[in-house]
């Protein structure tokens, strides 16, 4: 099949889209990467119906068989690593190193992880209970078993910032648990997900177990959510879209797993290692050009070290090479689209109007004549009531708010609609953990922006519903069934 013009993957068949194709644009060059299929509403519902038809047989397959298929698919993904990474870089704007190591390689690693996950026990004994004689029957000792069962058909709607790892983090655990899936990738970079589907097909996934549908507008996603054949929706994206999906899911009593927006607070205490803090916070400027919901975008720094940290962050940003993500040495690539570049730039201008001081950045970077580039930008003299502090910008923009003491730091950090991942920097580990435990966030990094990929991941407040990653993802894509018997 040509990489230039894709077809939908429905019921094990590569299917021509009823609404033609749309162009996928390279955000670094503004050239066309390829043509993605524009599914009709009826085709999306047909994909869900195919997943429903395939569910009965797939859910009854031996775990070992599911594990073998997922492991084989991972091997096929890695076999074509170079080609997959080149496509991912072209359609997402990620640097070559990021496309290889954090997109394709992590995507394949997640299939390997859930190949093992398919073999994890799904039964857990419940302590026996002694019941006296009564209206429900004779006295006896009752045993019980909690059994995790697959949910059914899962719609996976994925974000544009990682076209490999994000879909893999949904599809792999869902399949491992015996679910079937309808995958609706982000419209900006969907071509990589078709590569993933090809690997799964070649690995022996039965027809209908995996289906991929795409569209440039909201129609395909809406159909993938409201189909009566869908039992669960797993979504990564903005809080606003997540809220609309949740309304539809609520009417149909569909299960939800929502990983939504973030405005990560980085609390830097006066005894922190400022070089470590600046390097961690600086990943907002470089990693996916700030297009990541877990980024430490909202820096809360104790006044005694405020100016010193500001200087280190400005120096860090100044040394980052902005440019073509395919070029050696590039650290900051483009944002995903012209519309998103305009949105990020409008937030910087809003910050100026609100009284923030632009320490570095704030102007469109010199360099490539084409492409959707935003200069790493640092805003100081911010207060917690500013929109640039309260709203998710999703770009290489860091805002800095000073505080006086721990109590104020915790209050400022928690004064947010979001609560995905926060961070604390302090050389006193006991102090750092004390502050971390008080933060209303699904995760807290202590002196690091690194992640433990077996730890539960998800958000408080408007940052999401549910938890995944590691074995928690297997739980997320399953329902608990109780089996009770007399002893």
UniProtKB/TrEMBL annotation:
InterPro entries: Ald_DH/histidinol_DH, Ald_DH_C, Ald_DH_N, Aldehyde_DH_dom. The keyword Flavoprotein does not apply. Keywords: Oxidoreductase. Transmembrane segments: none annotated. The keyword rRNA processing does not apply. Residues 14-483 form the Aldehyde dehydrogenase domain. GO terms for molecular function: oxidoreductase activity, acting on the aldehyde or oxo group of donors, NAD or NADP as acceptor. It comes from the Bacteria. Belongs to the aldehyde dehydrogenase family. This is Acyl-CoA reductase. The lineage of its organism: Bacteria, Bacillati, Actinomycetota, Actinomycetes, Kitasatosporales.
